[in-house]
Specification:
mainly alpha; Arc Repressor Mutant, subunit A; 3-stranded antiparallel beta sheet; 3 strands
Length: 128
């Protein structure tokens, strides 16, 4: 079944929102914006190390998914989070990441408790 934009199931719309988040630089941009009321494009270029064209592409995606808003003042464009909940989402994602990394670290340390595997010799000896 094909849905129009107004008829799309909410889970598809939600998945589209996550597409807007699905790049490391876009996450970095959102984190920079979450730390300030607004940030100029020039400052974001400095903070991210991105060239203007690449930053512009990422900001375009974030605007398309309604995650950021912009305002031009003279020759300077400023960005801000479109919704305060974006910062909440980033905080929750960071907490989840910490939990995942903690679990991975626990698993890594438990490798030391595995029994030793004796060395059999060369691969050619195994094929005999």
């Amino acid at each position: 079944m094909v849905f129009g934009a107004e008829e799309r199931p909410l889970y598809e719309i939600k998945a589209s929102l996550f597409k807007g988040l699905a790049h490391p630089y876009r996450i970095r941009i959102l984190e920079i914006l979450a730390a300030s009321d607004e940030v100029s494009v020039t400052q974001m270029m400095t903070d991210t190390g991105l060239e203007a064209s690449h930053l512009s592409q990422h900001l375009s995606v974030l605007r398309r998914y309604h995650l950021v808003a912009s305002e031009r003042r003279g020759s300077v464009v400023y960005y801000r989070l479109a919704f305060a909940q974006v910062a909440d989402l980033l905080r929750v994602a960071r907490l989840l990441l910490a939990e995942v990394l903690s679990a991975s670290q626990h698993q890594l340390t438990s490798v030391d408790s595995l029994p030793d595997i004796p060395t059999i010799g060369s691969v050619s000896e195994l094929n005999r």
